[in-house]
Amino acid sequence: MSRSARAAGSASPVRRATVTAPANIAFVKYWGARDLARAVPVNPSISMTLARCVSRTSVERLDGAGADEVWLAAGPAEVGAAAAAPIDPGEAFRRRVTAHLGELRRRLGVEGQRYRVTTANSFPAAAGIASSASGFAALAVAVAAVAGRQAAPEELSALARASGSGSASRSVLGGYVEWPAPGSPEDDPRAVQLAPADHWDLRDVIAVVESGAKEVSSLDGHRRAASSPHFARRLELLPERLRRVRRAIAERDVHALGETIEEEAIELHLVAMSSHPPVYYWNPGTVEVLAAVRALRASGVPAWSTMDAGANVHVLCPPEAEEAVAERLGRVAAVERLIRDGVGAGPRVEEVVE
Ligand code: DP6
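That is the input. Now the predicted structure with DP6 docked in place:
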């Protein structure tokens, strides 16, 4: 029987699947939820899927086991990295992963299965680089494979989002991705690809100015969003901004894209900082990097900044500007390290063991 012919819930011969799934950087941000428990957004969002910032997750079926196991793989997530003894991830992490596993099993009709999950990131977790997006996208794709389900990207998008991480719904697709807002409260909006990675080679030089965990989770940020006096105004401005971003991607217009995403990022943080209670993600290093990027532009280098829910700054630029951007940002004292990434093709099933 072909893998695609196997129905969910039927005995799947797949015992273990290993998947890498990438983080993404939002050009237009998901901020504020209609239904936070189901991660239903107020507004549409658009992102670029990254190539190097990935989570690598193995899901192995544990026959006869009563409970799931969750481990952090010691060592980097890069393909082929040497295996070392896995580490206990702690209670909070385990609870979030097992909650997602429960939801995935329910949706895939494989309630009886139990899994051993081993995961690692190639980048610092909880630092404004969407580790939950890549992690939950990888988990959804790997569990679907072990359950014997050949899922379409739209279904994977819904499965990834069942974790409560909205941005995970975009990480199951490569290239440039839009996650629409719901038409009605019951809607279950699924991400769609606007353009594949090979449509446009864009680079993302990430200036890491904080590698620890952020103080306020994105979930709390969504909860507080509507308390900002600027939230309603932002919603009024978004339709035109979304049109500009879609058009800039279609036309590969880096100037139009860059100006729009920088404006969007500042506004997102303005809303966060003016919420009740306020949410400050920036640190002094963030401001230094923003100034360095403006200086780069003043000297003729095309580069624009954006930040998700964290202090780190993603600097978007065309390939020919990447070297100059990295050189300049490398001289900013507050920058702990640079991650040089770019647009990527989406999740990869690396290994399937029957
Ligand atoms: C600012 O609720 O998806 O990054 O699960 O922590 O990734 P995580 O957060 P989520 O909110 C994302 C908020 C954002 C904007 C975005 O990625 O769209």
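Helices lie at 91-108, 131-146, 153-161, 218-225, 231-251, 254-273, 284-298, 322-329.
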